[in-house]
């Protein structure tokens, strides 16, 4: 599958999620884009989300990013954060494959630049911003030891695809 197909699938996924009515019980995570989390973090702070993007190796660890906006979201495991979430990481076969591939993603990015790892992740979104009395308020200087502005506390991996990058077209 090409990255163009991945982006097309992600747009279709977003369009479908916006067309469906929200679940009143709150049991289902909000289906959001990386850009929504980066641009309006206060709307999703401390909420369960499902987000699709490119997995990248950053200076602070793994992140999930999008070509459509600047900024990434740090990915952390539940045992590495405070406050602790009310869930545990689901270490199923898809997570194990994600873990194996994500260990190689930095090397692939630096040496080959020919493939990307796309994933849909579910977890609690943490941000240094929250909504209070209808206004965006900064509530922390940074999250965790690395003092990042936003992170996804991973509960499970629901989709995983290795995409080949399109080579630049010759002019």
Shape: globular
> Strand portion, in percent?
35-45%
Summed over residues and divided by their number, the pLDDT gives a mean of 79
Q: Helical proportion? A: 25-40%
How far apart, in Å, are the first and last alpha carbons? Answer: 24 Å
In spatial order, strands of the major sheet run: 2-3-4-8-5
Class from secondary-structure proportions: alpha+beta
The major β-sheet equals: 5 strands, mixed, barrel
Number of helices: 3
**Taking Cα atoms only, what radius of gyration do you get, to the nearest Å?**
16 Å
Whole-number tally of structural domains = 1
Q: pLDDT under 50 segments (min length 5)?
A: 10-25, 167-171
Overview of the molecule:
This protein has 171 residues and is an alpha+beta fold. The protein has one domain. It is built from three helices and eight strands, in the order H-E-H-E-E-E-H-E-E-E-E.
């Amino acid at each position: 599958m090409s990255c163009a197909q991945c982006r097309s699938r992600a747009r279709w996924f977003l369009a479908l999620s916006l067309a469906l009515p929200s679940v009143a019980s709150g049991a289902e995570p909000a289906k959001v884009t990386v850009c929504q989390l980066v641009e309006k973090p206060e709307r999703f702070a401390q909420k369960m989300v499902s987000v699709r993007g490119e997995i990248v190796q950053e200076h602070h660890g793994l992140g999930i990013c999008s070509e459509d906006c600047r900024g990434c979201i740090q990915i952390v495991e539940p045992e590495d954060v405070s406050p602790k979430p009310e869930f545990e990481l689901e270490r199923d076969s898809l997570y194990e494959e994600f873990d194996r591939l994500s260990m190689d993603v930095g090397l692939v990015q630096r040496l080959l630049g020919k493939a990307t790892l796309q994933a849909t992740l579910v977890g609690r979104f943490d941000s240094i911003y929250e909504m209070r009395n209808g206004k965006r308020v900064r509530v922390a200087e940074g999250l965790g030891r690395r003092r990042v502005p936003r992170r996804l506390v991973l509960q499970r991996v629901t989709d995983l695809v290795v995409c080949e990058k399109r080579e630049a077209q010759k002019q």
